[in-house]
Write a structure and sequence with these properties.
With about 230 residues, the chain is an alpha/beta fold. The protein has six helices and eight strands, in the order H-H-E-E-E-H-E-E-E-H-E-E-H-H. The chain has a six-stranded mixed β-sheet with strand order 2-1-3-4-8-7.
């Protein structure tokens, strides 16, 4: 399906991925056949990437990887195969450094499974995902807007999006991710709050003066300082 490769075409047009999310040393969970590292030149702030796939160990618990190790964690179409999505996400956050970002792609149940369960397209799938529904046809449905807030005070949801711009809703049921452009997915990004920020209930920037240069860069206004500086 090459979902990471397809996502790159979209992500290079969204500056947050290059300047904020894919920054520093990363971990690519389940990325063995389609690693994010293939596109390192498009995300120049990414200084390194470790692929962690089945041959490396358990994808849910990441046994052997220390807490607070990676600047970012990336997982594409992996979460639906885990025994417990909540437990998996808690461990993926565990190995992430405070201030880092967890970027996850999951198949959207209506665009991918399209009303049929068990999955016709991937027999390893244990769960289906939706942004939120009051009622789902899937007996294994996970509402992300219910799941993600349950991850605790350090989980800061920064982005969540249904990726349906290339999905053709009028076609009969088939796996549209087999096409070169069809994503049929939901993407979410969680920032790991530093503990002090999590306990405080949000970011608390310290009081302090801004330099004249900072004011000019932020606002374009020139501020007179003593001595004409």
């Amino acid at each position: 399906m090459k979902e990471t490769s397809k996502a790159v075409l979209r992500r290079v047009r969204q500056p947050e991925f290059a300047i904020r999310y894919f920054v520093g040393q990363g971990l690519d969970i389940g990325g063995g056949t389609d690693p994010l590292g293939l596109y390192g030149e498009l995300f120049p702030a990414m200084t390194g990437l470790k692929v962690w796939d089945i041959v490396d160990g358990d994808l849910q618990h990441l046994t052997g990887l220390a807490d607070n190790t990676f600047d970012f964690v990336h997982a594409t179409f992996v979460l639906q195969r885990m025994t417990s999505p909540r437990e998996a996400l808690s461990h993926w956050l565990r190995v992430l450094k405070p201030g880092g970002h967890l970027v996850v792609l999951v198949p959207d149940e209506d665009m991918y499974e399209q009303g049929h369960w068990p999955s016709r397209y991937n027999h390893d799938n244990r769960w289906t995902f939706t942004l939120f529904k009051a009622n789902s046809w899937s007996p294994a449905s996970v509402n992300l807007l219910e799941l993600l807030p349950s991850l605790g005070i350090q989980a800061d949801l920064r982005r969540i999006e249904s990726l349906d711009s290339s999905f053709r809703h009028r076609l009969p049921r088939f796996d549209q991710t087999l096409s070169p452009v069809g994503e049929a997915a939901i993407e979410f990004v969680i920032r790991k709050r530093p503990q002090a920020e999590a306990v405080a209930g949000g970011r608390l920037n310290a009081d302090g003066p801004l330099s004249a240069r900072d004011v000019f860069l932020l606002t374009g206004l020139r501020v007179e300082t003593p001595g004409g500086g």
